[in-house]
TrEMBL record:
NCBIfam families: HAD-SF-IIA, HAD-SF-IIA-hyp4. It holds the Pfam family Hydrolase_like. GO terms for cellular component: cytoplasm. This is Sugar phosphatase. One of its GO terms (molecular function) is phosphatase activity.
Length: 293
């Protein structure tokens, strides 16, 4: 992983010869939660034609099979990538195994905060989904109940959880995302507020090491493989890649496009990007305006 000044590139084709495989983020890189970005399928096709294996690592709080199914609905063919790892899958495996001490202490009765589309987290599990804080042993937060809810809507609930000292599982550390062009909060914003209040939160997903360990086990390219991560979030993709010692390309036209004053497909000024990296204490290998070939 380089700590020297990053390169500004116009497409992955400029540097892909240095790498054996690629790990892609999804939301903000490949699609916006509704549709693929115009350049993403051509880029994935070009990677396949170049013989570069691709794995997906997403902070989606649901089973990996649900994520791949949704991508097929978007027109992203399954043969364009290999392993697909969702943070929800990492949490799901832990919930099923219950070998980790934190998970082992969880009871059967769970209160869920999040949309119905995340119910795959309970598949084949001996749990009872309850409706009230009083009945719950623990809480799963996969996101807001409604897409455009503010964090403040959950303040009373979080204080009620804290009063009972209920543990919270959050399989999506993202604070916000852009869905169909509109900014919405994610599970991490709600769980993060609970943690601020003093609550017990277990995080799964980027930037935590468990996410990279899980992905690299499935995407076994050997200890000497040269891997490139492509992501758009400083706090998850870039932080996680830095921690894992992996080269990373920041898609500047993703979640940080507005603060960098650079719409998707354009590169920001070095001054703005340097300021963002300095403020977060992170470093990148490449800056790219869009995930493109």
């Amino acid at each position: 992983m380089r700590t020297a000044p990053y390169e500004m590139i116009n497409g992955l084709s400029e540097v892909i010869g240095k790498y054996d495989a690629v790990i892609l983020d999804l939301w903000g890189v490949v699609h916006d939660g509704v549709d693929p970005y115009p350049n993403s399928i051509p880029a994935m096709t070009a990677l396949k034609e170049a013989g570069i294996p691709v794995a997906l690592l997403s902070n989606a709080p649901r089973r990996s099979s649900v994520v791949t199914g949704r991508m097929e609905e978007m027109g992203i063919a399954r043969d364009l990538y290999g392993p697909a790892v969702a943070s929800g899958e990492i949490a799901y495996r832990q919930l099923v195994d219950r070998t980790d001490p934190w998970y082992a202490k969880l009871g059967r009765k769970v209160l869920m905060v999040g949309p119905v589309r995340d119910m795959s987290m309970f598949e084949h599990q001996d749990v009872e989904i309850v409706k009230t804080v009083e009945d719950a042993d623990w809480v799963l937060i996969t996101g807001p109940n409604e897409d455009f809810d503010p964090v403040s809507k959950y303040e009373d609930l979080l204080h009620a959880l804290l009063a009972r000292n209920l543990p919270v599982l959050c399989p999506n550390p993202d604070r916000e995302v852009i869905r169909g062009g509109k900014r919405i909060i994610c599970a991490g914003a709600i769980a993060g507020r609970y943690e601020e209040l003093g609550g017990n939160v277990r995080w799964e997903g980027k930037p935590f090491a468990s996410a990279y360990d899980f992905c690299l086990q499935m995407f076994d390219k050997g200890p000497d493989a040269r891997l490139l991560v492509v992501g758009d979030s400083i706090s998850t993709d870039i932080a996680g890649s830095n921690n894992a010692g992996l080269d990373v390309a920041l898609v500047t036209g993703g979640i940080h496009a507005a603060e960098l004053d650079a719409p998707r497909g354009t590169l920001p000024t070095r001054e703005k990007l340097n300021a963002l990296l300095a403020a977060t204490g992170r470093h990148i290998t490449y800056a790219i305006g869009d995930f493109c070939w």
